[in-house]
Specification:
Largest sheet: 7 strands, mixed
Mean pLDDT: 93
Distance between the termini: 37 Å
Low-confidence stretches: 278-282
Strand order of the largest sheet: 3-2-1-4-5-7-6
Oligomer: single chain
Number of strands: 18
Structural class: alpha/beta
Helix content: 25-40%
Order of helices and strands: HEHEHEEHEHEEEEHEHEHEEEEHEHEE
Length: about 350
C-alpha cells in the first residue's frame, strides 16, 4: 500500500518518463520500485533504516538503494524527488543535497502532506532553483516542481551541525547535532534523570536509540573503559553521534539497527532513553518489543537501564520478561527502570 505522498507522485508519473531519478527520504512503501514502470533508472536514499530494509531485497541494475545522510558517489540525475521531512530544518539540507546531484536544468519534485509544513516551500527554495510551481493537490498532499538554474553548493556536514556544551551529572560534554535530530540544547528531563541514576556498568554496552550520542558521551566520561555500541534507525542521528564522539575524543561503534535486529551477540548492559513513536503516532508496540528483545540480548547478570515516560505501560512487559520491576528513581514525568537479567527469568 502506497502512502498518500507516494500516490501523488505516481499521479504525476509523466514527469519521470525515461529519466534517471533520485528519490530522497522515501517512506515505508515500494514507490522506488514502482517508479521503474516509467523511469529508466531509480536511485533511492533512505534516511530511515526500516524503510531501507523494506526495499533492500529489490536492488537491481535499474534500482540502487542506499541508507545514509548522503550518496556515496557524485552521480547526477535528471530528476530528484524529495519527501518533505517532518523536521522543517532538515528540508533545507535535503534540497541542497538534491541540487548537488541534479544535472543543469534538472527537475526537483517535492511532495508532502499538507500538515508537514510543505506550504512554506516557496520561502525555503534557494536561489539556485527557480520559483516552485504547485503541480498537484490531492490526498491531503501537495506536489511542487522547480528547475535547477545554477550550481548548488557542495554539502559540508559542518555547515549543518549545531555544536554546543552540555552540562551532565558526569561533567561537561560537547554535543554535535545535525538538522533533523531532536535537541533542546539542554539536558532533557528524562535523560537528566537517567544520568543522575547511572549504575556501574562493565564490558560491552548497547546505547539503543542513541540520537546525538549524549548518553554514550556521558557514560564514557565517567566509565571510559566501556565498549559501547550506539544504534539508531535514523541516518542523521548516527552521523550526529559520530560527530559528538569525535568532538569529545571518545571511541564507540555506531551502526544502524531496526530495533535490536542488527545487533550481534550479547551485551553486559543496555541503556536507553528509548523512542516510543512510529512517525507521528505513539505506540506501545515499540516499547514491548524493545523489552522482550533486550532479554534475549543480555548476558546473565547484564544491566538493563532505561528512562520512560510515566504514562507508558512498561511495568507489565518488564515483569513478564525480567520477572520483576525495579523503579529506582522517578519524578512527575519519568521513571527509571533498572533490572539485572537473571537467567532463570527467561
Amino acid at each position: 500500500m502506497l502512502t498518500n505522498p507516494s500516490q501523488v507522485i505516481l499521479r504525476n508519473s509523466n514527469l519521470f518518463e525515461n529519466q534517471n531519478v533520485l528519490v530522497i527520504n522515501y517512506e515505508d512503501d515500494r514507490l522506488p520500485k514502482d517508479l521503474l514502470e516509467h523511469a529508466n533508472k531509480v536511485t533511492a536514499l533512505a534516511l530511515d533504516f526500516h524503510h531501507h530494509l523494506q526495499m533492500e531485497s529489490e536492488t537491481s541494475q535499474e534500482l540502487s538503494l542506499f541508507f545514509s545522510h548522503c550518496l556515496p558517489n557524485e552521480e547526477l540525475f535528471d530528476t530528484a524527488i524529495i519527501y518533505y521531512p517532518k523536521a522543517k530544518a532538515l528540508a533545507a539540507y535535503l534540497i541542497n543535497l538534491a541540487g548537488q546531484h541534479l544535472k543543469p536544468g534538472g527537475q526537483l519534485v517535492v511532495v508532502g502532506e499538507n500538515k508537514s509544513g510543505i506550504r512554506s516551500l516557496a520561502k525555503q527554495i534557494p536561489s539556485y532553483f527557480d520559483k516552485p510551481f504547485k503541480r498537484d493537490n490531492a490526498r491531503h498532499c501537495l506536489l511542487y516542481i522547480c528547475e535547477l538554474i545554477d550550481l548548488a553548493p557542495k554539502i559540508r556536514l559542518d555547515d549543518w551541525v549545531s555544536q554546543y556544551q552540555l552540562e551532565t551529572p558526569q561533567g561537561e560534554i560537547t554535543v554535535c547535532n545535525l538538522v533533523g535530530v531532536f535537541s533542546e540544547k539542554r539536558l532533557d528531563e528524562g535523560t537528566k534523570l537517567l544520568l543522575s541514576n547511572l549504575p556501574k556498568m562493565k564490558g560491552r554496552v548497547l546505547d539503543f536509540g542513541c540520537g546525538a550520542g549524549v548518553i554514550t558521551a556521558a557514560l564514557l566520561k565517567e566509565q571510559p573503559t566501556l565498549q559501547i555500541e550506539c544504534v539508531d534507525i535514523n541516518a542523521m542521528a548516527l552521523a550526529s553521534c559520530e560527530l559528538t564522539l569525535k568532538a569529545n575524543n571518545f571511541i564507540a561503534t555506531t551502526y544502524p539497527s531496526d530495533g535490536l535486529d542488527q545487533t550481534q551477540d550479547k551485551f553486559d548492559g543496555i541503556i536507553s532513553n528509548p523512542p516510543f513513536h512510529d512517525g507521528l503516532k505513539s505506540t506501545s508496540e515499540i516499547a514491548k518489543k524493545f523489552v522482550s528483545d533486550s532479554v534475549i540480548k543480555l548476558r546473565r547478570g547484564g544491566v538493563w537501564h532505561i528512562v520512560a515516560n510515566r504514562h507508558l505501560a512498561y511495568s507489565d512487559t518488564i515483569e513478564a520478561n525480567f520477572g520483576q520491576v525495579n523503579v529506582i528513581a522517578e519524578n512527575n514525568k519519568y521513571k527509571i527502570y533498572s533490572n539485572k537479567f537473571n537467567k532463570q527469568t527467561r
